[in-house]
Structure to design on (824 residues):
C-alpha cells in the first residue's frame, strides 16, 4: 500500500465508493440507539454513553457526505472531515467535564441516579 | 461668508450685559457684594468695545461708513419663493455714536447705583432686591444696545419690548409702595398703546416689502415699493404713521405723555438711565432710522406738531412742579418734544445731535438730583431744600453745568444742538412758505420756559436759606462713586466735544465732526423722490441761522433772568406772578390738562371698560361655560366610564381573574414541566425537534 494518500488525501478518499443510503441508515440506527439510551437509562453514566453514540452518529454522517460528494473532493475541500474532527474533540472534552460532574454529584448525593439529582428545578 | 471683526465687537457689546443678567439671575445673591461689580464690569466692557468702534468710525471719517452683516434666523423658503427672516447688525456713524453714548451713560449710572442703592444692599429679607436691581439694569442696557445695532425693524421691535418690560420692572422697584406699582402698570399699559401701532405698522411693512431690513426699506422707497395703498391710505403714510405711534408711546409724546412723570416713582438712577437718557430716546432713534418713510409718506407735518405741542405744554407743566424729579421729568418730555419737532421739520441731524447732548446732560441732571435726594434722606420736595450749595459743592457744580447746557447758554452742548433745532424750525415755519408759523412760536416759548424752570430748580435747591434744618444739618457730600459720574457727565456737557474746537484738534478732522458724520445718511436718503422739501429747508435754514441764534440767546437769558429775579433776589413775588394768571390756567396745570381724567373717564370707562365687559361676558359664558365647563363634563363622563372599565373589567376580570386562574391553571402545569429531571427535558427537546421537522417538511411528509 502506497503512502500516496498522505500526500494526496482527497484523491484517495475520493476513490472510496459505496452505497450512500447504507451509510446513512447505519448512522440513523446509531443515532436512535444513542437517543433511547440517553432518554431511558436512569444511570447518568448510561445517559452519557447515549450522548456519545449520538455524537458519533453525527460525525459519521459528516464523513460519509465528505467522501460521497465528488464535487467537494474535487475542490480539495475537507469540511466534513474537519467537522467530524471537531466533534471528536468536543466529545473528548465533554467526557472530561461530564465525568467530573458525575463524580462530584456522586460525592454530594451518594448516587448517580438521574431522577434523584433534580436540583435544576430550582 | 466672512464676518468682519467689528461686527463681532458690536455683538459682544450686546452680549456682555446679557451674560451679566443671566449670571446675576442664577447666582447673583451668592456673589460678593451681591454682584453689582459684575453688572458694572460688563457694561464697562461694552463701553470699551464701543470706544473701539467709535475710534474706528473717527479714523475712517467717512459720512457714508456702513458695515452690516445679517444672519438668517428663520428660513421658510420654498422651491419657488424665497422667504427668509434675517436679523443682523448694522454699524454706521449714527449707531456708533449711539453705542458710545448709551454705554457711557449706562456705565456711569451703574457706578452711581452702587452708591445710591446701598440701602438695599445685603438684605435677604428684602428679597435680595439689590441683585435684582442690577440684573434689570443689565437686561435693560443689553436691550437698548441691541436696539441700537439692529439692522432691521423686527429685532428692533423685540428689544423695544424688552426695554418696556425692564422699564416696568424698574419703575415698580419699590414694590411696597402702591403708587410705584400703579405707576409701573400705567407706564406699561400706555406704552402698549403705542406699541400696538408700531406692531401694525411692522405687519403692514412686511406685507408690502417682505423684509424688515433698513437697507431694503431705503431701497424700496426709491424703487417705488411704497407707492401702493393700505386700508385706503398711501402705504408710506400708513406705515410711517403707525411706526410713529410707537415712538409717541415710547418717547412719551402728546397724547401718550401721561406715563413719564409717574415713572419717576422708580429709583433715581433708573430715571436717569431709562426715563431720561436712553429708553425714551429709543423712540427718537427709531424715527431717525425710518425717517425716509416718514418723509416719503408726508407724515412729517403730524410729527412736527406732536413734537411742538409736547415741547411747549410739558415745559408749562414743569414750571409749577415742586418735586425735583417731576421738574426733570417734564423737562425730559419737553426736550423729547424738541427732537420730534426737529425731525418733523426735516432736520434729521440736529435731532440726533440733541438726542446725544440731551442724554448726557439729562443723565447728569437726574443723577445730581439723585445725589441731592440721597443727601436729604429721600426728601424730594424742593420747597424743603435750599442752601445746599455749601453742603454739596461737587453736586452743585455738576448740576449747574448741566443746567447751563439744557438752558441753552453758549459754550455748552445744549446750546449747540438746540440752536440748530431752533434754526431749522424757524427756517421751516417762518422763512418757508409752509404757513406753519405756530411751530417756531411754540418752540421758542418752550426754550424760554426751559431756561426759567431749570434755574428755578437750581435756585430753589442750592441757593437761599435752608427750609428744613433737620435734613439740612445732616446733609453732606456724597461718596466718590456717586459724584464721579456727575463730574464726568458734566465735562461732556461742554459744546467743545461736539462742535470740534477741542475734538477737531484732537481727532484732526476740522470742526463739526459730529454734524459732518451724522448728516450723511440723511443726504443719502435724499436722493430720488424726496429731495425737494429738504433742499428747500436747507436753503431756509441758511437764512434763519443768525436770527435763530439771537432769538434763542434772548429767550434763554430772559428765562434765566426771570428765574434769578424771582427765586434768587426775590425782586418779583412769585405769589403775585401766580395771581396774574387766571384761575383756569392753574386748574389746567394742576390737573395736567385733564389728560389723566380724560383717559380714565372717556378712554377707559367709555371705551375699554364696555369692550372689556363684552369680553368678560364672552369669557364667562362662552369660554368658561362652554369650553371649560363643557370640557369638564366630557372629562367627567370619560372619568366615570373609565372608572367602571377599570374597576369592573380590568380589575375584576383581568387582574383578579388572571390572578386567581394563574396558580391553578398555568402554575400547576408549568410546575409539572419544571421537575428538574434531565431526561424529561430531553424528551421535550426531541419531541419539539420532531414537531419542528414535521412542520417544516409538511409537504414531503404528507
Amino acid at each position: 500500500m502506497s503512502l500516496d494518500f498522505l500526500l494526496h488525501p482527497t484523491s484517495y478518499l475520493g476513490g472510496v465508493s459505496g452505497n450512500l443510503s447504507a451509510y446513512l441508515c447505519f448512522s440513523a440506527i446509531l443515532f436512535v440507539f444513542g437517543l433511547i439510551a440517553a432518554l431511558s437509562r436512569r444511570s447518568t453514566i448510561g445517559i452519557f454513553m447515549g450522548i456519545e453514540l449520538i455524537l458519533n452518529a453525527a460525525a459519521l454522517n459528516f464523513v460519509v457526505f465528505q467522501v460521497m460528494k465528488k464535487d467537494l473532493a474535487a475542490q480539495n475541500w475537507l469540511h466534513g472531515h474537519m467537522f467530524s474532527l471537531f466533534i471528536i474533540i468536543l466529545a473528548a472534552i465533554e467526557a472530561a467535564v461530564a465525568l467530573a460532574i458525575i463524580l462530584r454529584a456522586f460525592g454530594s448525593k451518594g448516587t448517580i441516579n438521574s431522577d434523584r439529582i433534580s436540583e435544576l428545578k430550582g | 461668508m466672512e464676518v468682519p471683526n467689528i461686527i463681532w465687537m458690536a455683538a459682544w457689546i450686546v452680549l456682555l450685559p446679557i451674560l451679566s443678567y443671566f449670571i446675576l439671575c442664577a447666582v447673583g445673591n451668592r456673589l460678593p457684594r451681591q454682584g453689582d461689580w459684575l453688572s458694572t464690569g460688563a457694561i464697562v466692557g461694552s463701553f470699551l468695545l464701543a470706544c473701539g468702534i467709535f475710534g474706528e468710525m473717527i479714523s475712517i471719517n467717512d459720512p457714508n461708513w456702513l458695515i452690516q452683516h445679517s444672519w438668517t434666523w428663520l428660513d421658510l423658503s420654498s422651491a419657488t419663493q424665497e422667504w427668509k427672516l434675517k436679523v443682523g447688525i448694522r454699524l454706521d456713524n449714527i449707531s456708533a455714536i449711539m453705542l458710545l453714548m448709551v454705554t457711557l451713560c449706562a456705565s456711569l449710572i451703574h457706578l452711581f447705583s452702587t452708591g445710591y442703592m446701598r440701602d438695599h444692599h445685603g438684605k435677604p429679607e428684602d428679597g435680595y432686591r439689590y441683585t435684582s436691581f442690577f440684573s434689570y439694569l443689565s437686561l435693560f442696557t443689553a436691550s437698548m444696545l441691541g436696539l441700537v445695532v439692529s439692522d432691521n425693524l423686527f429685532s428692533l421691535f423685540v428689544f423695544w419690548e424688552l426695554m418696556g418690560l425692564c422699564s416696568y420692572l424698574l419703575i415698580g422697584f419699590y414694590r411696597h409702595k402702591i403708587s410705584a406699582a400703579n405707576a409701573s402698570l400705567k407706564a406699561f399699559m400706555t406704552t402698549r398703546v403705542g406699541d400696538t401701532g408700531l406692531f401694525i405698522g411692522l405687519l403692514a411693512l412686511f406685507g408690502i416689502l417682505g423684509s424688515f431690513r433698513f437697507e431694503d426699506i431705503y431701497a424700496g422707497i426709491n424703487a417705488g415699493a411704497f407707492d401702493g395703498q393700505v386700508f385706503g391710505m398711501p402705504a408710506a403714510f400708513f406705515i410711517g404713521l403707525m411706526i410713529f405711534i410707537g415712538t409717541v408711546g415710547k418717547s412719551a409724546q402728546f397724547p401718550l405723555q401721561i406715563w413719564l412723570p409717574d415713572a419717576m416713582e422708580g429709583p433715581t438712577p433708573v430715571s436717569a438711565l431709562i426715563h431720561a437718557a436712553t429708553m425714551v430716546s429709543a423712540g427718537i432713534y427709531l424715527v431717525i432710522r425710518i425717517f425716509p418713510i416718514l418723509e416719503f409718506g408726508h407724515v412729517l407735518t403730524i410729527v412736527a406738531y406732536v413734537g411742538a405741542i409736547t415741547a411747549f405744554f410739558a415745559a408749562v407743566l414743569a414750571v409749577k412742579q415742586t418735586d425735583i424729579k417731576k421738574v426733570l421729568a417734564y423737562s425730559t418730555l419737553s426736550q423729547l418734544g424738541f427732537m420730534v419737532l426737529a425731525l418733523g421739520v426735516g432736520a434729521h441731524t440736529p435731532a440726533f445731535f440733541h438726542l446725544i447732548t440731551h442724554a448726557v446732560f439729562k443723565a447728569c441732571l437726574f443723577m445730581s438730583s439723585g445725589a441731592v435726594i440721597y443727601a436729604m434722606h429721600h426728601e424730594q420736595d424742593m420747597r424743603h431744600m435750599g442752601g445746599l450749595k455749601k453742603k454739596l459743592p461737587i453736586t452743585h457744580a455738576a448740576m449747574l453745568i448741566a443746567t447751563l447746557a439744557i438752558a441753552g447758554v453758549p459754550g455748552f452742548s445744549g446750546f449747540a444742538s438746540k440752536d440748530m433745532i431752533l434754526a431749522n424750525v424757524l427756517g421751516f415755519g417762518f422763512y418757508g412758505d409752509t404757513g406753519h408759523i405756530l411751530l417756531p412760536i411754540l418752540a421758542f416759548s418752550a426754550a424760554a420756559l426751559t431756561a426759567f424752570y431749570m434755574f428755578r430748580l437750581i435756585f430753589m435747591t442750592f441757593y437761599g436759606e435752608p427750609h428744613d434744618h433737620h435734613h439740612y444739618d445732616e446733609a453732606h457730600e456724597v461718596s466718590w462713586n456717586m459724584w464721579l459720574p456727575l463730574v464726568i457727565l458734566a465735562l461732556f456737557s461742554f459744546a467743545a466735544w461736539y462742535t470740534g474746537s477741542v475734538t477737531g484738534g484732537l481727532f484732526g478732522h476740522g470742526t463739526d465732526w459730529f454734524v459732518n458724520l451724522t448728516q450723511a445718511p440723511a443726504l443719502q436718503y435724499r436722493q430720488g423722490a424726496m429731495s425737494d422739501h429738504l433742499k428747500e429747508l436747507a436753503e431756509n435754514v441758511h437764512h434763519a441761522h443768525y436770527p435763530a441764534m439771537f432769538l434763542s440767546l434772548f429767550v434763554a437769558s430772559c428765562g434765566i433772568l426771570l428765574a434769578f429775579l424771582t427765586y434768587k433776589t426775590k425782586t418779583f413775588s412769585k405769589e403775585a406772578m401766580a395771581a396774574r394768571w387766571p384761575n383756569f390756567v392753574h386748574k389746567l396745570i394742576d390737573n395736567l390738562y385733564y389728560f389723566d381724567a380724560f383717559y380714565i373717564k372717556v378712554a377707559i370707562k367709555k371705551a375699554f371698560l364696555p369692550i372689556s365687559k363684552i369680553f368678560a361676558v364672552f369669557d364667562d359664558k362662552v369660554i368658561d361655560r362652554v369650553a371649560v365647563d363643557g370640557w369638564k363634563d366630557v372629562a367627567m363622563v370619560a372619568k366615570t366610564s373609565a372608572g367602571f372599565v377599570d374597576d369592573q373589567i380590568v380589575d375584576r376580570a383581568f387582574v383578579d381573574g388572571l390572578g386567581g386562574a394563574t396558580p391553578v391553571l398555568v402554575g400547576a402545569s408549568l410546575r409539572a414541566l419544571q421537575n428538574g429531571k434531565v431526561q424529561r427535558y430531553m424528551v421535550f427537546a426531541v419531541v419539539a425537534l420532531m414537531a419542528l421537522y414535521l412542520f417544516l417538511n409538511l409537504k414531503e411528509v404528507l
In short: Chain B touches chain A at residues 674-679, 682-683, 686 (CB under 8 Å).
